[in-house]
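Tip: read the tokens left to right.
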């Protein structure tokens, strides 16, 4: 399994610099989600609908949008074998962006221990959405390239920019997404989901302490 392979890689996280954690004018909220070997980001659909150039249609009539990035064959479910997982680390052919839309509160289906709320500024939210848009690959007509999803309830997949590999996996992508949102997360060599999640936990806990324990829920 890909998770087992990644456990062999360095994954020690460095706690964020508290001086760089946003605590003022943080009117927006996202959630960082950690599930097994994979990480993803949950953000308000209203912002995606008004600010994304390519995923605005995904946000129509929805409350939340969840986005993640990974190897095209393994991530879409086309092939979930150990061989595919190993190949993805060294000779991935293409990458994919997953988009899951939620028409109602998704938190009942996402265990609380696998997610953390993060407060960001309006500017940070715009930059995060811009980062997601730039992660999408476009055809010659500058349209999205849909990929087949091999499974039920997994949302939609689109061809993505970037080459998945040993040092550029879903967790480094998610770390850079948090950086784009203005959060002091280290992404370089943070190769496991746990290493990035621990940084997000530290940021969330610090923001809650600054707000007198009444941080975002």
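Filled-in amino acids:
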């Amino acid at each position: 399994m890909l998770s087992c392979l990644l456990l062999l890689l360095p994954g020690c996280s460095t706690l964020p610099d508290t001086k760089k954690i946003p605590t003022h004018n943080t009117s927006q909220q996202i959630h960082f989600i950690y599930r097994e070997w994979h990480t993803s980001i949950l953000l308000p659909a209203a912002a995606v609908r008004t600010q994304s150039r390519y995923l605005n249609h995904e946000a129509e009539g929805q409350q939340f949008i969840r986005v993640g990035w990974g190897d095209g064959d393994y991530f879409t479910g086309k092939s979930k074998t150990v061989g595919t997982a190993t190949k993805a680390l060294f000779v991935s052919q293409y990458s994919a962006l997953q988009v899951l839309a939620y028409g109602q509160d998704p938190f009942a289906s996402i265990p609380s221990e696998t997610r953390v709320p993060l407060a960001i500024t309006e500017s940070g939210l715009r930059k995060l959405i811009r980062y997601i848009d730039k992660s999408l690959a476009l055809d010659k007509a500058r349209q999205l390239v849909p990929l087949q999803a091999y499974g039920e309830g997994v949302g939609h997949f689109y061809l993505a920019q970037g080459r998945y590999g040993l040092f550029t996996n879903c967790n480094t992508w998610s770390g850079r997404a948090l950086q784009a949102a203005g959060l002091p997360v280290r992404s370089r060599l943070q190769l496991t989901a746990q290493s990035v999640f621990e940084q997000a936990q530290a940021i969330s806990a610090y923001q809650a302490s600054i707000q007198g324990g009444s941080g975002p829920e």
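The radius of gyration is 17 Å. The longest strand covers residues 28-35.
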